UniProtKB/TrEMBL annotation, chain A:
Molecular function GO labels: L-isoleucine transmembrane transporter activity; L-leucine transmembrane transporter activity; L-phenylalanine transmembrane transporter activity; L-valine transmembrane transporter activity
PANTHER family xref list: BRANCHED-CHAIN AMINO ACID TRANSPORT SYSTEM PERMEASE PROTEIN LIVH, HIGH-AFFINITY BRANCHED-CHAIN AMINO ACID TRANSPORT SYSTEM PERMEASE PROTEIN LIVH
Entry's family note: Belongs to the binding-protein-dependent transport system permease family. LivHM subfamily.
CDD domains: TM_PBP1_LivH_like (cd06582)
Coarse class of the protein's main subcellular location: membrane
Organism field: Paracoccus homiensis
Record's subcellular location: Cell membrane
Presence of keyword Coiled coil: no
Transmembrane segments: 6-39, 51-71, 77-99, 111-132, 169-186, 215-236, 242-261, 268-286, 306-324
GO cellular component: plasma membrane
Descriptive protein name: Amino acid/amide ABC transporter membrane protein 1, HAAT family
This protein's UniProt keywords: Amino-acid transport, Cell inner membrane, Cell membrane, Membrane, Transmembrane, Transmembrane helix, Transport
Alphabetized InterPro entries for the sequence: ABC_BtuC-like, ABC_transp_permease, BCAA_transport_permease
From TrEMBL, chain B:
Keywords: Cell membrane, Membrane, Transmembrane, Transmembrane helix
Protein name as catalogued: Amino acid/amide ABC transporter membrane protein 2, HAAT family
Keyword Nuclease tagged: no
Domain of life of the organism encoding this protein: Bacteria
GO-annotated cellular components: plasma membrane
Amino acid sequence: MDILNALVAFLNFVFIPAAAYGAQLALGALGVTLIYGILRFSNFAHGDTMAFGTAITILVTWGLQALGISLGPLPTALLALPVGIAATALLVLATDRAVYRFYRVQKAAPIILVMASVGVMFLMNGLTRLLIGVDEQRFADGERFVINVRDFKAMTGLAEGLALKTTQLLTLVIAILVVWALFWFLNRTKSGKAMRAYSDNEDLALLSGIDPEKVVRLTWIIAAALATIAGVLYGLDKAFKPFNYFQILLPIFAAAIVGGLGNPLGAIAGGFVVAFSEVAITYPWLKIAGYLFPGWQPDGLLQLLGTEYKFAVSFVILIVVLLFKPTGLFRGKSV
Amino acid sequence: MSTNRQATAHSPWRAPILFAALALLFVLEGTVRNSMFSGSWNTSLAILNMGLISAITALGVNMQWGYAGLFNVGVVGFLALGGLAPVLVAMPPVEGGWSAGGPRVLLSLAVGLGTLALATQLWRRMGKGRLRGLAVTGVLILGFFVYRGLFDPAVTAIEANNPARHGNLGGLGMPVMLSWVVGGAFAAAAAWAVGKVALGLRSDYLAIATLGIGEIIVAVLKNEDWLARGVKNVVSIPRPVPYEIDLQQNPAFVEFATRWGFSATEASGIWVKICYMSLFLVVLLVLILLAELALKSPWGRMMRAIRDNETAAEAMGKNVTARHLQVFVLGSAVIGMAGAMMITQDGLMAPVGYNPLRYTFLIWVMVIVGGSGNNWGSVLGAVLIWFLWIKAEVWGPALIGVLTAPLPDGGLKEHLLDSSAHMRFIAMGLVLLLVLRFAPRGLVPEK
């Protein structure tokens, strides 16, 4: 039994990728859950908001690269990120003003807002395609690895290598910073408290003089920032393709619901639950089993589900939560 | 479901006039050749046939949304599942495919379903406690391994059988029209499973769950080669109508065509499309008749009562969740039927083509534009939007060409001209948002 090599293989193929993916999902789910908490509808345009923000960031990145500006070992996209966030925030504020506010004032049924978000999704999808096309774009530059396989093997003398991509480390660091900043904002600032109050009880919040439009605007800006950051990190880590950002909607919704819609802490937990289950279930465990039980010769890859069905994992998690705990692991809203 | 339900007076001529205008568009497409229309009846009828299939899909969506306010975001999945039926029903059986592992695949699927059923029964019958959780988990894990143990070798054997041409089980070799009903049944079964879980909870949950099942069904069709060859596609699915090549070789038909002033090639295409159109029209009209009868019956009144005020209907002793499940299954069956009809018409099962933007959200635009809650409205919206969607491919670049004419030649102008295809999405999104806001009752409002 070779525990050390098994552990390294586990870290390399399961833990690190899942942690990075989980952080990306968590940021996406935080946006969905905040919108749900304040505006009380599931925003189907969130995936395409992510795509739009990422597209703008990529365009600015290309501009910066053309000017010869870079961040050294870090991806240039980080410099472009604020521009992407600002553009996305403007866009979502404009859609709120033009689309959602009307239904909010009317107090329309939530499902009408969901429907409107589908229309917005179409718009944003077309806009993104217009800006950058439908093809896959890779825009990660700078140092590729923090630890690469060869150095790790030379350093430790183990047979199994460990790689840590810059983008993965960056994803985790940025996600922690963003989440810390968000919770500080929600718990410590007046505006953040107003948001939480509005989310808890709209009427009571209105009675205490909270300006609902201001809360809504703030929510959209934060959601746009979260969506853009999540989208850029996902794009840096894998690649940017507009259709993938539509597909990631399902794991993001699953994460938000698993954690309890409307509950920010839940969204983070949900993101990691979904990501770790997805990776663990679609990873072929043969190699790790080979280290742990050298005598055992299974005839399959020990893969529970093919990677092409990774969306099925989020779906099954979603179904299980809906069956047994519809409000999510952390009590969310059950409006 | 609109937010504003009081009936505003509108002319009883509104729907007939709109339908006449729509018919005029198709006649123009068939007869006038200029920069806007193709002047080919073949093109016109091809658009119409796909429009009719979209109309049937829209009818199904309208049952769910218009009658019950259920938001199905997985239309593409139910459509694709229906499309599986022509392959499984009408294709001839693959030689050696069935004996390679057919019974074993069926057995493994039975084991899989049996495991789920057993787990459900255990959950219901056993008393609350840790033992129940352990027993159910144990059954599920054991069932999964037995299922995979049976399933994997069978699939390998089937896919190894002449993989270049087949590698799948093939069908039953039965008439293809039968598959329309089977397709409906497939979609209904999937809808029942999803609805059972997601209905009765918050309204968004159904939307999210259907989004998931839609993606999964398409993924299954893409990857399960033993079923319908996955991305390798199944071609030459039998047709319920004559083949063009046979018509062209039939002297009586050629004479008939020349008498009407068409070449044999053109006439054969038109004739085949007219045959399909008649079949689709019959199905569409029968479905509308049934739907209208159902809506006028006490059942229809109850459905509308539930939609308009769930709490009140529940207080009157109506089982809202069960009724929702019922109408969700019915609507999905209609969508599945449309899916089977589409594959029958194409003669080709190509799962890569199932794009949610095209098959879910475009259908939604059709329903909303047509007038949710009104069957004729859905039909009108479907055929109209489909016509515009196809023609936007031609009109879009022309329009952008005109709009960008004053711009100096350069990168921006070229980029805009190149990306006019994407304008369709923006246009559809705008149409959806504008109708939803300014005319929530659609072109032909509910009575």
